[in-house]
Amino acid sequence: MDALFLGRQGNMYKSKFQLHKVISVMIGVALLLSGCGDAGVENGVITGTVFSNRAGGATTKTPEPSVSVIAVFESEPQVIRTAVSNANGQYRIPNLRIGKWALGYSKDGFETIQATEKTATSSEASTAIGGTDIKVYVETATTIAAPDVTLRNRPPEGDGTVILNLVDERTGEAVNGATVSVGNSTTSNGSNGQYVLVVPIINPSGDAAPQSAALNVSAEGYSGPANGVNSLAVLAGQSIEHTVRMVPLTGQIEGQITLSKFSNLYDVSQFRVTVEGLSTANQQAQAPDANGFFQVEVPVRTSTNNRSYTLRISGRGVFDQVVNNILAPIAGSVRVDVPPMTPQTVTIVGEIRNPSGNRAVIGQLGLEGGVTGGIPNCNAFTNGIRGTVGSFSIDGVPVDTQNDLTVTSTVYNCDEAGLQTGTAAAEASFKALNNGTGVFTVPTLQAGAGN
């Protein structure tokens, strides 16, 4: 029995020894995983600060809180430690083994900086936005400051809504009946020129928001978007509205300007032809040639837009001529008949020194008017001058003519003795103006000095 007890006791002692051995190994592994070094070697600490570019730009830094920081020991066995940045963007990772540690940073809404073996490039330095390959060597019983890190906003992925307004560049009208593609989305359902598309946004590269999506627009009567616009900004989870000006295909309205009378007195090349109904920026007046021929460019009509225009012709000295409801060309040109322009006219009035005849004449126009008063009398004096004064008026005289006009009449002469010595022609040059009264006064007609 003693032998048996001893045997059993021996086995018990053996089992206890093995159990202590297993426990010792587990404690050693735990100490190793906890970062304990060799006897007499103290662990180190890594500190640092995380910023973000919330304020915009690579050089703008704002302390970023709640960033997850990971430290990976790059020797065997691998050890991982973590920390979270505080309200000032600062973090502290204690109890680290001596050696090289790779640091990584992550937070929702920002690009992740991986704790990897990736080799940094000039565009991925540790202090740059979105930098990688951040390494820190920990020495015994020291606190190591890691380089500052700036996280870059990562735009979200998902569906973004694009509200596209199509506007005719020349007329300002809404463009209907178009087919619009933004990214992978296409629609032809537009109302009053507005098209709504839901565009999927995938952002594997983490480029700055918003994303750029390819734009394609086709519409009858248009060559495409103005200024070569071929992309639009889209932001996942948000609606962005864009206005795109469309370049219309164009034709011409052509015709000739004439005058109802006095055509030789006006330079029609100085007149202007304007198409009303175009946007202000495109209402540039066109000048006809010397013979009055003109040609103005207008957007064509289409099956969805039966355009018509109003033509206005204006010039100095004539009343505006308006031609309504000119149907736009489908292509090429359309001819329009312009009624003759009517000159604006006034009545000219003036005085005649020593009038002899009873008519005053404007030979260039074939117009004349009567003379009143001023019966010949060489013994009379008017304002200290020998003779009499009469007056005249002529109706329908055009204003703002290209050249001066001349009015003439006949006057009598007196010698110093007060005797009438015959007649002579008197004239005055003028250019009538429309002063709003309908009457224009010309200089006094007289034969010569001393009369």
Please supply descriptive tags for the structure shown above.
451 residues, mainly beta, Immunoglobulin-like, 4 domains, five-stranded mixed beta sheet, 1 helix, 32 strands
Number of helices: 1
- At the first level of CATH, what is the class of the largest domain? Mainly Beta
N-to-C span: 178 Å
Strand elements, count: 32
**Residues in β-strands, percent:** 35-45%
What is the total number of structural domains? 4
Compute the CA-based radius of gyration.
49 Å
CATH architecture annotation name of the largest domain: Sandwich
Mean pLDDT rating: 83
| Outline | elongated
The biggest beta sheet reads:
5 strands, mixed
Find the CATH superfamily of the largest domain. Immunoglobulins
- For this structure, the CATH topology of the largest domain is Immunoglobulin-like
Helical coverage, percent range: under 10%
Low-pLDDT ranges: 1-40, 118-131
- Secondary structural class: mainly beta
